[in-house]
Each structure stands twice: as structure tokens, then as C-alpha cells.
């Protein structure tokens, strides 16, 4: 079972998400709380995935994200918002968020997003994907791959390319005929060597470095 915690300042949103997710056979909603209760509930319930509102009146969502990421074994966190273009998107992703979902996400897509997050994938609502990518690419692609890429082994580079394609750890493991644990180790090494805090940042790093263009060429 995938243990999920919903954190939002609006009771209606919490209840709606809880009902939608609870209908999935492999998802258990272990809590639906406001921001002020988030960190304590994460520690008590130990969820696998946290859906966290980025804007709450009692506590800032980015602050909660930072506190969760500092835990010894933090859960996967995806941010929730009602805005198509949110100025905090890039900050959240750089702070380690594994995804960004709009609160009006199709009910049928919500459990699929949670399942992807639990498998080690990343999730970006279609309405914000283009904005996020454009934001990262606006500075222009580097003329040559950054020095950080030289730190990667050949196998890590392969894993990075598949991450950039949006594959989860399990899907990468299947594609490369590796164990999921080995893929997790590679992903951890990639994040460390590229000095990024999440899969989304690593994938966009690969895009900016032109790795996907090189592969297709």
C-alpha cells in the first residue's frame, strides 16, 4: 500500500483528495491535515508520499517542504497549487519537490500521479510543465556540457537520460535490466554529482546540457 498524507488549508480540498485517493486499491490516506500539523503528522504516520499545498495561511508550504526534506528518511513530496503559473514553482523544485500538481487535476489522474511518485517518478501537471521547462531553459543551453556531467560514469549518464525521459526507477530498472535498488543508488549518485536536490532538476539539467538532443542525433 502507498501511504499518502494530504496537506492543505482548505477542508474541502483535503476531503476531496482523500476520497479520490482512498478509492484506489493500492493507496491508503494516512492523514489529511492543515500546514501547522504537517511535520508532526509526517513523523507520526511515516507516509510514502505527501501532497503539500504550496500556499497556506498558517504556514508557508515551502517552509514545510524544507522541514520535511531535512528528516532522516523524508517521504516524496509533490506541491499543490491552484495557479497555472506560480512564482514558487522553481523554488519548490530546487528545494527537492518531486512534482507539481494543480488542485483541479483530473480525479482519474490523481491516483496515477501518486503511484508514479511512489515508484520514484516525477509529476508535473501539463499546464505547468511548459512553464517550468521554459524557466530552466530561458538562460540558454550551455555551449558544452557542464563540468558536473564529466563526474558521471557511463552507466549514470544512461540513467540520467532515462530520468530526463520521465521514467520511474522501476521503469529504468526494467529498461536497463538492473535491480530497482541499483537504479536508486545510481540516481542518488547522480543527484550528488550534479549538486541538485531532486529528479526534476536533474532531468532539466540534462535538457539544458543538450544530452537529449545528442541522444536523438
From TrEMBL:
Domain of life: Bacteria
Pfam family, one: Response_reg
Sequence ranges assigned to domain Response regulatory in this UniProt record: 3-118
Record-linked Gene3D superfamilies: 3.40.50.2300
GO biological-process terms attached to the record: phosphorelay signal transduction system; regulation of DNA-templated transcription
Modified residues (4-aspartylphosphate): 53
PROSITE patterns: HTH_LUXR_1, HTH_LUXR_2, RESPONSE_REGULATORY
UniProtKB keywords: DNA-binding, Phosphoprotein, Transcription, Transcription regulation
Positions of the HTH luxR-type domain: 145-210
Gene Ontology MF annotations: DNA binding
Protein name: Two-component system response regulator
Organism (species): Streptomyces corchorusii
Lineage: Bacteria, Bacillati, Actinomycetota, Actinomycetes, Kitasatosporales
Amino acid at each position: 500500500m502507498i501511504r499518502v498524507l494530504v496537506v492543505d488549508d482548505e477542508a474541502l480540498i483535503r476531503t476531496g483528495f482523500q476520497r479520490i485517493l482512498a478509492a484506489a486499491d493500492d493507496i491508503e490516506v494516512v492523514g489529511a491535515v492543515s500546514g501547522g500539523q504537517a511535520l508532526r503528522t509526517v513523523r507520526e504516520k511515516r507516509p510514502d508520499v505527501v501532497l503539500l499545498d504550496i500556499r497556506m495561511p498558517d504556514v508557508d508550504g515551502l517552509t514545510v517542504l524544507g522541514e520535511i526534506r531535512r528528516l532522516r528518511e523524508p517521504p516524496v513530496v509533490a506541491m499543490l497549487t491552484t495557479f497555472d503559473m506560480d512564482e514558487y514553482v522553481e523554488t519548490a523544485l530546487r528545494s527537492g519537490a518531486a512534482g507539481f500538481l494543480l488542485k483541479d487535476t483530473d480525479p482519474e489522474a490523481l491516483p496515477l500521479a501518486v503511484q508514479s511518485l511512489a515508484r520514484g517518478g516525477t509529476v508535473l501537471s501539463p499546464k505547468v510543465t511548459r512553464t517550468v521547462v521554459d524557466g530552466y531553459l530561458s538562460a540558454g543551453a550551455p555551449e558544452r556540457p557542464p563540468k558536473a556531467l564529466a563526474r558521471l560514469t557511463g552507466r549514470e549518464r544512461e540513467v540520467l537520460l532515462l530520468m530526463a525521459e520521465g521514467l520511474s526507477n522501476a521503469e529504468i530498472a526494467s529498461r536497463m535490466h538492473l535491480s530497482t535498488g541499483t537504479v536508486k543508488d545510481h540516481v542518488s549518485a547522480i543527484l550528488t554529482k550534479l549538486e541538485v536536490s531532486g529528479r526534476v532538476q536533474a532531468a532539466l539539467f540534462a535538457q539544458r546540457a543538450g544530452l537529449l538532443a545528442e541522444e536523438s542525433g
